[in-house]
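Q: My labmate handed me this sequence with no annotations at all. I'd like to see what the chain might look like in three dimensions before we decide whether it's worth expressing. Could you predict it?
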Amino acid sequence: MRNLVRYKNVRKPRIRQVQKFSQKRHCSAEAFKDEPVPGIMEGVPKNVETELGKIIKEDIKKNGPWSILKYMETCLQHPEHGYYTVNAEISEYGDFVTSPELYHGFGECCGVWIVFTWQQMAKPETVHLIELGPGTGQLMKDVLKVSTLPQVSALKRAIEVHLIESSPKFRKMQAEKLGVLDIKTGTVMVNVPEIKKSEKEDPKIIDDRAEIRKKYVEEQNKKSAAEGKPKISATGFANPMGKGGLLKDEVDKMKSEAYANATPEMRKKLDEGNDQLDKDWENMMDNLQMDTKEIEKEFTYGYSWNGVKISWHDSLDTVPQGPTLAIAHEFFDALPIQRFTYTDEGWREVMVDACDDPSKTNHFKFVTAKEKTQASGTLEGHYKRNTVIPEIGTTIETCPAANLVMADLATRIGQFGGAGFVIDYGGEGAPSDSLQAVKKHKFTNLFTAPGTADITAHVDFAALKATISEVDKVNCYGLVTQSYFLQGCGIVQRAEQVAQQCKTSQEREQMLEAFGRVADINQMGGFFKAMAFAHTTVGTPVGFLEQSKKEDLEIAFNVNTGQILSAKKLAKLRNQIAKENKEKQEKSEATAPSVEKEKMRVHSVSSTHGNIDEWKDFLLTNDTMTWYSKKGIQEYITLDLGQLSAVSRIGFTFSGGSALHLPSHMVLQVAVQEEFDDIKWETGTKMKIREPQVDIWHDFKVDKNARWLKIILHQTHGKDSFGLTQIKVE
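A: Here is what I predict for the chain of 730 residues:
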């Protein structure tokens, strides 16, 4: 049984609509406790300010609170102190790790998806393979390993890889991973909107949609002022709610007032008129033409070790037009978000302000904007048009950049053909409180040491789907779990193939463990979701097809051979495991005889030096002999009770001679198996000796059947060893 590695429910065969993703963070509340309790933490100094923190704080004090969007973007992308620019480390030993780094089969399956989808595209002679946020480059390396095989040599000739990456640090890492040695710089002419401030001045080129919106409104207000007309509000082209969000606030206000004072019959007519107004406004925006001008932009490129052209771009606008295959793996979660809360005065944006309160450890805090911001005004207009009145206190998060990027990708595919997929964590619906920071694989406060932690938020797949639906000739597929997607791309078959090639059982077990983390529905395979979008001529991409089998699938590997067990052997394995679990349950619940002290023995097991190495039965006798641990962080004491026994408590004493050698705390573990080699320890209770005392009993409450007891003693900081004088089991 120990030679088998099992993965339960690796596949959920039916594609079903995923329920809304939990908006709660995936850790304990303690990890997200925002600030110390005043009074208890009085006198505790504030966290040390990072250089980036000082820059942000200075600007906030000068110009007022920042939006979360600006704070998040600055923390991640600041050119000198940003996390992705300077500090990011993606590995098991860094801040976080992604599926491609854990298991190469993940990237190989993505390569299979590229091969099949290219074939569904009727094998174009040139295809632009775009990866957004390529990280370490491991995913693209594994993708190319599959898509440049001799069996698909035509695809190798067709592929041009385009990496959308702004960080010099990651570009260097990706070049090394892909074997690109000679990197050159190229230029391309790009059309950007042109805003003319006056006929006398030279035109100013604006390559920012928010700036376009601002300049457009300024120009319109100048004309309005000259003509004696009221000003318009700064609604935006980058509105995450779609074109309808460009309606003027003044129009919304008039509509609301008229609706409030109207009779039921009049309200019906107003609704019909509002619908027509929305349609007319959309038609107007569709026909709106802006002047553009060509400017020159740079990109870099080189060739991989096997001759594939690799290009790096700051944004999608420098990627050549043509048939496209796109990959966005853990990209959208790192795009900056906005957060809004509904108050009795309407929607208000949640901002980041400086915090000078000496009772708080962080230098920043969340505040709710007192006045309406441009973003909250746009959101409010959207809700009014849909006659939705949220509850007071409702909070949502939106990501304008995600919708813009998705719109660009979908438009490209709609015009030139192709497909793409997104893998990320999130759900269908706007999150409410998903913003989180991670450092060294642990959650940390968002405001602790800006620029040193990864900041992400859950992805709203429903918003991405809505954006795709507005593009002609592009269909959307999913959501499915990452596990489902990978199995459709052959990850199980590939895992068996690799497992059989492993040289040792230990190597094979490590490989299968990595496979399980990525593919198991109870691990990353279920936590991450996958969505695809494709031109209508492509059809349903691989990984999103409906399965023919209707039962859940459980697989098990034989660690000695690497083979997947047959259905018959797996059924036998299930029965055997169920029998063992039942016997274990019955044994643990049955009333065992009392502890027989003459059958007990004590072993000292050193965590520093390995296995059972000393007998210390004198600890069971009533004398003053003391056992001292070896120097180390912790040690184990194992008690052999001689038989399964009903244990109510276990106590310890420390003699006067060990007063300076007391452990900081202890942890008790229990096992019921008869043979020591078959032990599976269950953690019982934990006892901290907060005020160490000698010559008194320190008790654990057990109240369980036990065959073996293990006490883990943690050493007091700064001490070389700790001493134990007597153990009593009842």
